[in-house]
Amino acid sequence: MAAAGFVGLQPFVCVGTCRYFAAPAIYAMTMLKKESDMTERRLAERQLVVYRDSDTIAQAGAQRILLAILDTLSTQPQPERFDLALTGGSDSLKALSYMASNPLTQIVDWSRVHIWWGDERFVAANNEDRNALQARRRFLDALQDGGRLPAANIHEMPADTRSPRQVATDSDTDNGTANDAVLDAAALQYGQELIAELGDQPTFDLLILGMGPDGHYASLFPGHAEINVTDRLVVGVNHSPKMPPLRLSLTAPLLARSHRTWFFAAGAAKADALAQVFAKSNNPAYPSSFAAGTDEFMWFTTADAAAKIL
């Protein structure tokens, strides 16, 4: 990986009534990734964009997401669709709230946009922990109710349909191994949906991710085997170190081949992990180091989060 170098400034783009934000500093790094056949595949240059606070990340992120969708769908000849993969986390959910009030939302042809998730908490569909439920409340339901986003374009990960009593029983039996079969079936189901919609090598146009203070992304955690899974598209996660314990996650190879991959990661609590992620690629101790993008790979962060790499 090349050393970081200052390459310029990028202004905040605004439509309609807006506030002024100081232009963020952008830093660039070049990445190479080894494929399974041991040939090198050049990935997008990694860019670090430093904003003043998490709210600015969310506002700028909302604008950038909408512009990415609009620009792609307006390219000639026009593509049939745009596939956007979302995540949970406060920064990305705040961005969805800003998207709901952004004038560009009224311009986008949402009938050609498909929504996916990078991971999901495996709980009941109406559980407050569901990433999809939070995204629906903040943004997607209004689009669907207004007839602009077809229900078939929202590709939620499966929910847990078991009763709370059955979940408790399965969790207490043989160290929760009964949950593994349920998670595997749900992961297979979502993998099949990805293939049906996007082909044998599913690829997103834009993937939004967040990173935890421990360096995890999606639901791929340090010290857990799922980060090393390469033989499937979706993996079940049992005994997650972060509640709730049952989850589904896209696997690292699928997450790494998105055309555009953007991280929203703010706050001093993430400084140590961010430094480790930038220091070494594909480090299981910091799963976010496995992330990449083929056309664009950007980290949107704050000065306190990036303090140890600048």
What keywords describe this structure?
three-stranded antiparallel β-sheet, Rossmann fold, eight-stranded mixed β-sheet, alpha/beta, disordered N terminus, 310 residues
Largest sheet: 8 strands, mixed
> DSSP strand (E) fraction?
15-25%
Can you tell me the residue ranges where pLDDT is under 50 for at least 5 consecutive residues?
1-22, 30-40
Order of helix and strand elements from N to C terminus: EEEEEHEHEEHHHEEEHEHE
Number of helical elements: 7
Structural class: alpha/beta
State mean pLDDT (0 to 100 scale). 89
E-strand count: 13
Question: Which word captures the global form?
Answer: globular
Rg calculated over all Cα atoms: 19 Å
* CATH topology assignment: Rossmann fold
Query: Oligomeric form of this entry?
Result: single chain
Helix coverage percent: 25-40%
The tally of domains stands at: 1
Strands in their spatial order, largest beta sheet: 1-2-5-13-12-9-6-7
What's the end-to-end separation, in Å?
A: 15 Å
Second rung of CATH, namely the architecture: 3-Layer(aba) Sandwich
